[in-house]
Write a structure and sequence with these properties.
With 49 residues, the protein is of the alpha+beta class. It has one domain. 24% of the residues lie in helices and 53% in strands. It contains 1 helix and 3 strands, in the order E-E-H-E.
């Protein structure tokens, strides 16, 4: 499992958080499911670059 930092941009603002997942794709899909069509842009990057 890897640590990631997630930034989600919506029409209402920006949300930042972190998560643990096997891959960035898995975390991106989970965030997309949570925010639905409200998410305009989802950025997932490693916590330890």
């Amino acid at each position: 499992m890897k640590h990631f930092i997630v930034t989600v941009y919506t029409a209402g603002g920006r949300y930042r958080g972190n998560g643990i997942a096997r891959s960035w794709f898995e975390l991106e899909n989970a965030v997309a499911d949570q925010f639905g069509t409200e998410a305009r842009c989802i950025i997932v990057r490693p916590a330890h670059a």
